[in-house]
Amino acid sequence: MTITYDPSHALYFDEADLRSELTRVFDLCHGCRLCLHLCPSFPTLFNFIDARDGDVHGLTDQEQDRVIDECYQCKLCYNKCPYVPPHEWELDFPRLMMRANAVKKMQKRQSTRERLADQLLSRTDLLGNVSVRFSGLANRALSKNSVLLRKSMDAAMGIAAQRVLPPYARQRFSAWFKSRMKPFIENCRNKVVLYPTCFIEYQEPAIGKDLVAVYEKNGIECSLPEGVKCCGAPWLHSGDVLKFKKVAEKNVTALVSQARQGHPIIVSQPTCAYVIKRDYPLYLRTRESRDVAAATFDAAEFLMDTHKKRGGLDLNFVGDVPESVTYHAPCHLQAQNVGFKSRDLLKLLGIKVTVVSKCSGIDGTWGYRSDNYELSKKVALGLVQAIERSDGKVLSGDCHLANTAITEETDRKVYHPIQIVARAYGLSEEKRQ
User: Fold this and answer.
1) Which contiguous run of DSSP H or E holds residue 326?
2) Of 193, 130, 117, 82, the residue nearest 368 (C-alpha)
Protein backbone atom coordinates (compact mmCIF):
# COMPACT_ATOMS: atom_id res chain seq x y z
CA MET A 1 0.00 0.00 0.00
CA THR A 2 1.37 3.40 -1.04
CA ILE A 3 0.08 6.72 0.26
CA THR A 4 0.63 8.80 -2.85
CA TYR A 5 -1.21 11.54 -4.68
CA ASP A 6 1.71 12.20 -7.01
CA PRO A 7 1.13 10.90 -10.59
CA SER A 8 4.88 10.58 -11.14
CA HIS A 9 5.13 7.94 -8.39
CA ALA A 10 5.82 4.46 -9.73
CA LEU A 11 2.73 2.96 -8.06
CA TYR A 12 0.25 5.80 -8.70
CA PHE A 13 -1.48 3.90 -11.53
CA ASP A 14 -1.18 0.45 -9.94
CA GLU A 15 -4.72 -0.81 -9.26
CA ALA A 16 -3.84 -3.31 -6.54
CA ASP A 17 -1.97 -0.61 -4.66
CA LEU A 18 -4.87 1.79 -5.17
CA ARG A 19 -7.39 -0.72 -3.78
CA SER A 20 -5.30 -1.16 -0.64
CA GLU A 21 -5.10 2.59 -0.15
CA LEU A 22 -8.87 2.91 -0.67
CA THR A 23 -9.39 0.33 2.09
CA ARG A 24 -7.08 2.24 4.46
CA VAL A 25 -8.79 5.56 3.84
CA PHE A 26 -12.33 4.16 3.91
CA ASP A 27 -11.58 2.57 7.28
CA LEU A 28 -10.44 5.92 8.70
CA CYS A 29 -13.49 7.70 7.28
CA HIS A 30 -15.83 5.06 8.72
CA GLY A 31 -14.35 5.54 12.15
CA CYS A 32 -14.75 9.32 12.06
CA ARG A 33 -17.89 10.21 10.05
CA LEU A 34 -17.51 13.99 10.33
CA CYS A 35 -17.98 14.05 6.55
CA LEU A 36 -21.34 12.23 6.60
CA HIS A 37 -23.40 15.13 5.21
CA LEU A 38 -20.88 16.53 2.73
CA CYS A 39 -21.70 14.46 -0.37
CA PRO A 40 -23.34 11.18 -1.44
CA SER A 41 -20.07 9.23 -1.31
CA PHE A 42 -19.94 9.07 2.46
CA PRO A 43 -23.45 7.80 3.28
CA THR A 44 -22.99 5.20 0.55
CA LEU A 45 -19.62 4.16 1.98
CA PHE A 46 -20.85 3.94 5.56
CA ASN A 47 -23.92 1.95 4.58
CA PHE A 48 -21.77 -0.58 2.70
CA ILE A 49 -19.43 -1.02 5.68
CA ASP A 50 -22.23 -1.10 8.27
CA ALA A 51 -23.94 -3.86 6.29
CA ARG A 52 -20.78 -5.92 6.89
CA ASP A 53 -20.65 -5.14 10.62
CA GLY A 54 -17.78 -2.73 10.10
CA ASP A 55 -15.61 -4.98 7.93
CA VAL A 56 -14.14 -2.49 5.45
CA HIS A 57 -11.96 -5.23 3.94
CA GLY A 58 -15.09 -6.99 2.71
CA LEU A 59 -16.03 -4.21 0.27
CA THR A 60 -16.10 -5.35 -3.33
CA ASP A 61 -14.43 -3.44 -6.15
CA GLN A 62 -17.90 -2.51 -7.43
CA GLU A 63 -18.83 -1.01 -4.05
CA GLN A 64 -15.58 0.94 -3.89
CA ASP A 65 -16.23 2.17 -7.43
CA ARG A 66 -19.67 3.45 -6.51
CA VAL A 67 -18.18 5.55 -3.72
CA ILE A 68 -15.65 6.93 -6.23
CA ASP A 69 -18.35 7.71 -8.81
CA GLU A 70 -20.43 9.64 -6.27
CA CYS A 71 -17.56 11.96 -5.30
CA TYR A 72 -18.04 15.20 -7.24
CA GLN A 73 -14.87 16.94 -6.03
CA CYS A 74 -16.48 19.70 -3.96
CA LYS A 75 -13.22 19.78 -1.91
CA LEU A 76 -15.06 20.46 1.34
CA CYS A 77 -13.29 17.49 2.89
CA TYR A 78 -10.38 19.90 3.35
CA ASN A 79 -12.54 22.11 5.57
CA LYS A 80 -14.00 19.27 7.59
CA CYS A 81 -11.52 16.38 7.76
CA PRO A 82 -9.07 16.48 10.71
CA TYR A 83 -6.62 14.10 9.01
CA VAL A 84 -5.67 15.93 5.82
CA PRO A 85 -1.93 16.37 5.15
CA PRO A 86 0.33 17.21 6.95
CA HIS A 87 -1.39 14.90 9.47
CA GLU A 88 0.48 11.62 9.99
CA TRP A 89 -2.44 9.67 8.45
CA GLU A 90 -2.15 11.65 5.19
CA LEU A 91 -5.85 11.34 4.37
CA ASP A 92 -6.69 13.25 1.20
CA PHE A 93 -10.05 11.89 0.06
CA PRO A 94 -10.56 14.15 -3.01
CA ARG A 95 -7.13 13.40 -4.47
CA LEU A 96 -7.54 9.70 -3.77
CA MET A 97 -10.80 9.76 -5.75
CA MET A 98 -9.00 11.55 -8.60
CA ARG A 99 -6.28 8.91 -8.45
CA ALA A 100 -8.97 6.22 -8.77
CA ASN A 101 -10.40 7.99 -11.84
CA ALA A 102 -6.90 8.24 -13.30
CA VAL A 103 -6.33 4.50 -12.84
CA LYS A 104 -9.67 3.75 -14.48
CA LYS A 105 -8.79 5.92 -17.46
CA MET A 106 -5.25 4.56 -17.74
CA GLN A 107 -6.58 0.99 -17.77
CA LYS A 108 -9.22 1.94 -20.37
CA ARG A 109 -12.10 0.73 -18.23
CA GLN A 110 -14.35 3.62 -19.24
CA SER A 111 -17.39 3.07 -21.40
CA THR A 112 -17.63 4.70 -24.81
CA ARG A 113 -20.20 7.15 -23.43
CA GLU A 114 -17.82 8.17 -20.65
CA ARG A 115 -14.92 8.70 -23.05
CA LEU A 116 -17.04 10.80 -25.41
CA ALA A 117 -18.41 12.88 -22.54
CA ASP A 118 -14.89 13.51 -21.25
CA GLN A 119 -13.78 14.71 -24.66
CA LEU A 120 -16.76 17.03 -25.11
CA LEU A 121 -16.72 18.50 -21.60
CA SER A 122 -12.94 18.86 -21.36
CA ARG A 123 -12.22 20.58 -24.69
CA THR A 124 -13.71 23.83 -23.47
CA ASP A 125 -11.59 26.14 -25.64
CA LEU A 126 -12.33 24.25 -28.85
CA LEU A 127 -16.04 24.06 -28.06
CA GLY A 128 -16.11 27.68 -26.89
CA ASN A 129 -14.41 29.04 -30.00
CA VAL A 130 -16.80 27.25 -32.32
CA SER A 131 -19.91 27.94 -30.24
CA VAL A 132 -19.26 31.69 -29.92
CA ARG A 133 -18.71 31.97 -33.65
CA PHE A 134 -22.06 30.26 -34.28
CA SER A 135 -23.73 31.22 -30.99
CA GLY A 136 -27.27 31.44 -32.34
CA LEU A 137 -27.12 27.96 -33.82
CA ALA A 138 -25.17 26.52 -30.86
CA ASN A 139 -27.58 27.88 -28.26
CA ARG A 140 -30.61 26.59 -30.12
CA ALA A 141 -28.96 23.19 -30.50
CA LEU A 142 -27.96 22.96 -26.80
CA SER A 143 -31.30 24.22 -25.48
CA LYS A 144 -33.57 21.77 -23.67
CA ASN A 145 -36.13 22.58 -26.37
CA SER A 146 -33.88 20.86 -28.92
CA VAL A 147 -35.31 17.53 -27.84
CA LEU A 148 -33.91 15.28 -30.57
CA LEU A 149 -30.31 16.53 -30.30
CA ARG A 150 -30.29 16.58 -26.51
CA LYS A 151 -31.66 13.03 -26.36
CA SER A 152 -29.03 11.97 -28.88
CA MET A 153 -26.31 13.57 -26.74
CA ASP A 154 -27.72 11.76 -23.71
CA ALA A 155 -27.70 8.41 -25.47
CA ALA A 156 -24.29 8.77 -27.12
CA MET A 157 -22.31 10.76 -24.54
CA GLY A 158 -24.29 10.65 -21.32
CA ILE A 159 -24.90 14.43 -21.14
CA ALA A 160 -28.22 14.73 -19.31
CA ALA A 161 -30.95 15.84 -21.72
CA GLN A 162 -32.86 17.54 -18.88
CA ARG A 163 -29.93 19.66 -17.70
CA VAL A 164 -29.89 23.36 -18.58
CA LEU A 165 -26.53 24.21 -20.16
CA PRO A 166 -25.11 27.76 -19.99
CA PRO A 167 -25.61 29.56 -23.34
CA TYR A 168 -22.74 31.00 -25.36
CA ALA A 169 -22.11 34.70 -25.96
CA ARG A 170 -21.87 36.39 -29.35
CA GLN A 171 -18.46 37.86 -28.59
CA ARG A 172 -15.55 36.50 -26.59
CA PHE A 173 -14.51 38.52 -23.56
CA SER A 174 -10.93 38.80 -24.83
CA ALA A 175 -12.15 40.16 -28.17
CA TRP A 176 -14.12 42.86 -26.34
CA PHE A 177 -11.20 43.67 -24.06
CA LYS A 178 -8.71 44.08 -26.91
CA SER A 179 -11.07 46.22 -29.02
CA ARG A 180 -12.29 48.57 -26.28
CA MET A 181 -11.02 52.09 -25.81
CA LYS A 182 -8.70 51.79 -22.81
CA PRO A 183 -9.47 54.55 -20.30
CA PHE A 184 -6.91 56.67 -18.51
CA ILE A 185 -6.82 55.53 -14.90
CA GLU A 186 -6.21 58.41 -12.55
CA ASN A 187 -4.17 57.58 -9.43
CA CYS A 188 -3.44 54.03 -10.58
CA ARG A 189 -2.64 52.07 -7.44
CA ASN A 190 -2.04 48.61 -8.90
CA LYS A 191 -1.82 46.56 -12.08
CA VAL A 192 -3.43 43.14 -12.30
CA VAL A 193 -3.67 40.33 -14.83
CA LEU A 194 -7.12 38.89 -15.54
CA TYR A 195 -7.43 35.15 -16.07
CA PRO A 196 -10.87 35.18 -17.72
CA THR A 197 -11.78 31.45 -17.39
CA CYS A 198 -13.87 29.62 -19.99
CA PHE A 199 -17.15 30.82 -18.51
CA ILE A 200 -16.35 34.51 -18.85
CA GLU A 201 -14.41 34.13 -22.08
CA TYR A 202 -17.13 32.24 -23.96
CA GLN A 203 -20.38 32.28 -22.00
CA GLU A 204 -20.81 35.25 -19.67
CA PRO A 205 -18.43 38.06 -20.72
CA ALA A 206 -20.71 40.55 -18.95
CA ILE A 207 -19.16 39.43 -15.65
CA GLY A 208 -15.68 40.18 -17.00
CA LYS A 209 -16.77 43.58 -18.33
CA ASP A 210 -18.24 44.52 -14.95
CA LEU A 211 -15.11 43.27 -13.21
CA VAL A 212 -12.93 45.51 -15.38
CA ALA A 213 -15.22 48.49 -14.72
CA VAL A 214 -15.18 47.96 -10.94
CA TYR A 215 -11.41 47.48 -10.82
CA GLU A 216 -10.73 50.55 -12.95
CA LYS A 217 -13.14 52.59 -10.84
CA ASN A 218 -10.85 51.78 -7.92
CA GLY A 219 -7.60 52.64 -9.68
CA ILE A 220 -6.64 49.08 -10.64
CA GLU A 221 -5.35 48.68 -14.17
CA CYS A 222 -6.29 45.40 -15.91
CA SER A 223 -4.50 43.45 -18.62
CA LEU A 224 -4.98 40.09 -20.32
CA PRO A 225 -2.13 37.57 -20.61
CA GLU A 226 -1.29 35.94 -23.91
CA GLY A 227 -1.45 32.18 -24.33
CA VAL A 228 -3.70 31.12 -21.42
CA LYS A 229 -6.22 28.34 -21.92
CA CYS A 230 -8.82 26.51 -19.83
CA CYS A 231 -7.42 25.77 -16.36
CA GLY A 232 -7.71 22.03 -17.08
CA ALA A 233 -10.12 21.11 -14.29
CA PRO A 234 -12.33 18.93 -16.55
CA TRP A 235 -9.31 16.84 -17.55
CA LEU A 236 -8.16 16.47 -13.96
CA HIS A 237 -11.54 15.53 -12.54
CA SER A 238 -12.16 12.98 -15.30
CA GLY A 239 -8.85 11.29 -14.51
CA ASP A 240 -6.72 12.45 -17.44
CA VAL A 241 -3.77 13.61 -15.36
CA LEU A 242 -1.37 13.79 -18.30
CA LYS A 243 -3.55 16.18 -20.32
CA PHE A 244 -4.17 18.23 -17.18
CA LYS A 245 -0.45 18.63 -16.56
CA LYS A 246 0.17 19.74 -20.16
CA VAL A 247 -2.53 22.42 -19.87
CA ALA A 248 -1.25 23.51 -16.45
CA GLU A 249 2.32 23.82 -17.74
CA LYS A 250 1.18 26.05 -20.63
CA ASN A 251 -0.81 28.32 -18.33
CA VAL A 252 2.00 28.58 -15.81
CA THR A 253 4.42 29.51 -18.60
CA ALA A 254 2.00 32.22 -19.75
CA LEU A 255 1.49 33.64 -16.25
CA VAL A 256 4.76 33.23 -14.35
CA SER A 257 6.48 36.35 -15.67
CA GLN A 258 3.52 38.47 -14.58
CA ALA A 259 3.50 36.86 -11.16
CA ARG A 260 7.22 37.51 -10.70
CA GLN A 261 6.77 41.15 -11.68
CA GLY A 262 4.39 41.48 -8.75
CA HIS A 263 1.18 41.63 -10.78
CA PRO A 264 -1.71 39.82 -9.02
CA ILE A 265 -3.56 37.25 -11.14
CA ILE A 266 -7.32 37.74 -10.77
CA VAL A 267 -9.65 34.77 -11.29
CA SER A 268 -13.37 35.33 -10.92
CA GLN A 269 -14.52 31.70 -11.04
CA PRO A 270 -13.91 29.59 -7.89
CA THR A 271 -13.05 26.26 -9.54
CA CYS A 272 -10.42 27.83 -11.78
CA ALA A 273 -8.92 29.80 -8.89
CA TYR A 274 -8.79 26.67 -6.75
CA VAL A 275 -7.08 24.67 -9.50
CA ILE A 276 -4.41 27.33 -10.05
CA LYS A 277 -3.83 27.90 -6.33
CA ARG A 278 -3.85 24.31 -5.13
CA ASP A 279 -3.65 21.78 -7.97
CA TYR A 280 -0.97 23.38 -10.16
CA PRO A 281 1.71 23.28 -7.41
CA LEU A 282 0.74 19.75 -6.34
CA TYR A 283 0.73 18.19 -9.79
CA LEU A 284 3.53 20.16 -11.45
CA ARG A 285 5.79 20.48 -8.39
CA THR A 286 7.73 23.40 -9.88
CA ARG A 287 8.80 26.73 -8.49
CA GLU A 288 7.04 28.44 -11.39
CA SER A 289 3.69 26.85 -10.46
CA ARG A 290 4.14 27.89 -6.83
CA ASP A 291 4.91 31.47 -7.87
CA VAL A 292 1.77 31.62 -10.01
CA ALA A 293 -0.33 30.11 -7.23
CA ALA A 294 0.96 32.63 -4.69
CA ALA A 295 0.02 35.52 -6.99
CA THR A 296 -3.54 34.28 -7.67
CA PHE A 297 -6.59 35.90 -6.08
CA ASP A 298 -10.34 35.53 -6.30
CA ALA A 299 -11.87 38.75 -7.63
CA ALA A 300 -13.59 39.74 -4.38
CA GLU A 301 -10.66 38.52 -2.32
CA PHE A 302 -8.35 40.99 -4.04
CA LEU A 303 -10.83 43.87 -3.72
CA MET A 304 -11.19 43.28 0.01
CA ASP A 305 -7.41 43.04 0.32
CA THR A 306 -7.20 46.38 -1.48
CA HIS A 307 -9.81 47.86 0.84
CA LYS A 308 -7.95 46.80 3.97
CA LYS A 309 -4.31 47.23 2.94
CA ARG A 310 -4.08 49.58 -0.03
CA GLY A 311 -6.03 52.68 0.89
CA GLY A 312 -9.61 51.46 0.68
CA LEU A 313 -12.21 51.15 -2.05
CA ASP A 314 -14.40 53.90 -3.45
CA LEU A 315 -17.56 53.73 -1.31
CA ASN A 316 -19.53 56.32 -3.27
CA PHE A 317 -22.38 54.20 -4.57
CA VAL A 318 -24.70 56.25 -6.77
CA GLY A 319 -26.43 53.42 -8.61
CA ASP A 320 -28.85 50.66 -7.70
CA VAL A 321 -28.14 48.96 -4.37
CA PRO A 322 -30.47 46.12 -3.34
CA GLU A 323 -31.74 46.10 0.21
CA SER A 324 -30.92 42.43 0.74
CA VAL A 325 -29.02 39.66 -1.05
CA THR A 326 -29.00 35.90 -0.66
CA TYR A 327 -25.41 34.96 -1.40
CA HIS A 328 -24.46 31.42 -2.41
CA ALA A 329 -20.93 30.51 -1.26
CA PRO A 330 -19.62 27.99 -3.83
CA CYS A 331 -17.87 24.86 -2.57
CA HIS A 332 -14.62 25.55 -4.44
CA LEU A 333 -14.46 29.04 -2.96
CA GLN A 334 -15.04 27.72 0.56
CA ALA A 335 -12.27 25.18 -0.03
CA GLN A 336 -9.79 27.99 -0.70
CA ASN A 337 -10.11 29.04 2.96
CA VAL A 338 -9.98 32.76 2.19
CA GLY A 339 -13.22 33.57 4.01
CA PHE A 340 -16.47 34.91 2.55
CA LYS A 341 -14.90 37.86 0.75
CA SER A 342 -17.82 38.34 -1.64
CA ARG A 343 -20.15 38.61 1.34
CA ASP A 344 -17.84 41.16 2.94
CA LEU A 345 -17.67 43.12 -0.32
CA LEU A 346 -21.46 43.25 -0.59
CA LYS A 347 -21.73 44.42 3.01
CA LEU A 348 -19.63 47.47 2.11
CA LEU A 349 -22.63 48.56 0.02
CA GLY A 350 -24.85 48.48 3.13
CA ILE A 351 -26.63 45.33 1.95
CA LYS A 352 -28.11 42.78 4.33
CA VAL A 353 -26.46 39.54 3.19
CA THR A 354 -27.72 36.03 3.96
CA VAL A 355 -25.12 33.36 3.21
CA VAL A 356 -26.20 29.98 1.85
CA SER A 357 -23.40 27.42 1.70
CA LYS A 358 -25.19 24.34 0.36
CA CYS A 359 -23.84 22.58 -2.75
CA SER A 360 -25.50 23.10 -6.15
CA GLY A 361 -24.83 19.52 -7.23
CA ILE A 362 -23.01 20.56 -10.42
CA ASP A 363 -19.37 20.61 -9.30
CA GLY A 364 -17.50 21.02 -12.56
CA THR A 365 -18.97 18.57 -15.06
CA TRP A 366 -20.24 15.92 -12.62
CA GLY A 367 -23.82 17.21 -12.58
CA TYR A 368 -23.98 17.39 -16.38
CA ARG A 369 -23.77 13.63 -16.74
CA SER A 370 -27.00 11.68 -17.10
CA ASP A 371 -25.80 8.96 -14.70
CA ASN A 372 -25.55 11.61 -11.97
CA TYR A 373 -28.55 13.76 -12.87
CA GLU A 374 -31.07 12.48 -10.32
CA LEU A 375 -28.48 12.41 -7.54
CA SER A 376 -27.38 15.92 -8.52
CA LYS A 377 -30.97 17.18 -8.23
CA LYS A 378 -31.20 15.57 -4.80
CA VAL A 379 -28.00 17.32 -3.69
CA ALA A 380 -29.31 20.66 -4.99
CA LEU A 381 -32.55 20.31 -3.04
CA GLY A 382 -30.89 21.49 0.18
CA LEU A 383 -29.62 24.61 -1.59
CA VAL A 384 -33.04 25.36 -3.06
CA GLN A 385 -34.71 25.00 0.34
CA ALA A 386 -32.13 27.28 1.95
CA ILE A 387 -32.72 29.92 -0.74
CA GLU A 388 -36.48 29.68 -0.24
CA ARG A 389 -36.05 30.23 3.51
CA SER A 390 -33.90 33.30 2.96
CA ASP A 391 -35.35 36.77 2.44
CA GLY A 392 -32.86 38.17 -0.07
CA LYS A 393 -34.40 40.32 -2.79
CA VAL A 394 -31.52 39.45 -5.13
CA LEU A 395 -29.63 36.18 -5.60
CA SER A 396 -25.86 36.25 -5.95
CA GLY A 397 -23.05 33.72 -6.35
CA ASP A 398 -19.50 33.57 -7.70
CA CYS A 399 -19.74 30.29 -9.65
CA HIS A 400 -21.34 30.51 -13.10
CA LEU A 401 -22.12 26.78 -13.18
CA ALA A 402 -23.77 26.88 -9.76
CA ASN A 403 -25.65 30.05 -10.70
CA THR A 404 -27.01 28.34 -13.82
CA ALA A 405 -28.18 25.42 -11.68
CA ILE A 406 -29.82 27.79 -9.19
CA THR A 407 -31.67 29.52 -12.03
CA GLU A 408 -32.74 26.11 -13.35
CA GLU A 409 -34.16 25.17 -9.95
CA THR A 410 -35.69 28.51 -8.90
CA ASP A 411 -36.39 30.42 -12.16
CA ARG A 412 -34.53 33.39 -10.63
CA LYS A 413 -31.57 35.20 -12.17
CA VAL A 414 -28.35 35.00 -10.16
CA TYR A 415 -25.77 37.80 -10.29
CA HIS A 416 -22.04 37.56 -9.67
CA PRO A 417 -21.17 39.79 -6.65
CA ILE A 418 -19.01 41.94 -8.93
CA GLN A 419 -22.08 42.65 -11.06
CA ILE A 420 -23.95 43.92 -8.01
CA VAL A 421 -21.04 46.20 -7.14
CA ALA A 422 -20.93 47.49 -10.74
CA ARG A 423 -24.65 48.29 -10.55
CA ALA A 424 -24.10 50.12 -7.26
CA TYR A 425 -21.42 52.28 -8.92
CA GLY A 426 -23.73 52.88 -11.88
CA LEU A 427 -21.25 51.04 -14.13
CA SER A 428 -23.01 47.77 -14.89
CA GLU A 429 -22.75 46.11 -18.29
CA GLU A 430 -26.55 46.12 -18.53
CA LYS A 431 -26.57 49.95 -18.51
CA ARG A 432 -23.59 50.27 -20.87
CA GLN A 433 -25.29 48.24 -23.61
Assistant:
1) strand 324-328
2) 117
Expressed as residue numbers, the domain containing 378 is 317-432
CB 208, CB 422: distance < 8 Å: no
Q: How far is CA 27 from CA 88, 318, 400, in A?
A: 15, 57, 36
Q: What is the Cβ-side half-sphere exposure of residue 127, based on CA atoms within 13 angstroms? A: 18
Please name the amino acid found at residue 6. Answer: D
- Measure the CA–CA gap between 90 and 113, rounded to whole angstroms: 34
Do strands 220-223 and 190-195 pair parallel, antiparallel, or not at all (unpaired)? parallel
Per-residue pLDDT tens digits for 377-395: 999 999 999 999 999 999 9
Q: Whole-angstrom distance between the N-terminal and C-terminal Cα of the chain?
A: 59
- In a domain? residue 9: no
Any idea what the CATH number is for the domain that residue 370 is in?
3.40.50
Task: Kindly state the DSSP code that residue 12 receives in the 8-state scheme.
Answer: T
pLDDT tens-digit series, residues 67-103: 999 999 999 999 999 999 999 999 999 999 999 999 9
